[in-house]
Specification:
152 residues; Ferritin; single chain
């Protein structure tokens, strides 16, 4: 997908979380490890929640901001977040799943941080800061909850 506007960027981010949620959910029943199944179920719900939060940013942001061109601000290396849901998570253990999901979130956070370093339009900067803060807070919550699961 070619992302041209901030609306498309935000919708793309929501789609990433949604796709990950569906894939994790699909793999929940297929994984043989009980701890991994519990983690997959939790992560699927969490990613769905994040998808809804990101979509709320689109709903609340002004049209002028959303229709602003983002192309000049995006890193020009290929952004490849979408992975096919080929039951990959069904074969991973607890630590493998955790590692991949952490990496997934880290990439989104780094993308937003890169954008913030390049944007000098106050309203868009505010929107991107809010999105980044939400992603960072949700990632911290995710890490905390998974650490608690790991203690069990």
């Amino acid at each position: 997908m070619e992302i041209k506007t901030f609306r498309e960027l935000i919708e793309w981010t929501a789609d990433l979380h949604g796709q990950l949620a569906r894939c994790l959910s699909h793999c929940t029943t297929l994984n043989k490890d009980e701890r991994a199944r519990m983690l997959l179920g939790y992560l699927a719900r969490h990613e769905t929640d994040i998808e809804h939060m990101v979509n709320e940013f689109v709903r609340q942001a002004g049209t002028n901001i959303l229709e602003t061109r983002v192309y000049d601000y995006l890193p020009h290396e290929s952004m490849k977040f979408h992975r096919p849901c080929d039951e990959h998570y069904a074969s991973l253990d607890f630590n493998g799943i955790r590692s991949e999901v952490y990496d997934y979130h880290d990439q989104i956070i780094k993308l937003y941080q890169t954008l913030l370093g390049k944007i000098n339009i106050p309203k868009i900067n505010e929107l991107m800061e809010d999105l980044l803060t939400m992603e960072q807070n949700e990632f911290k919550r995710l890490v905390h909850q998974i650490s608690r699961m790991d203690d069990l």
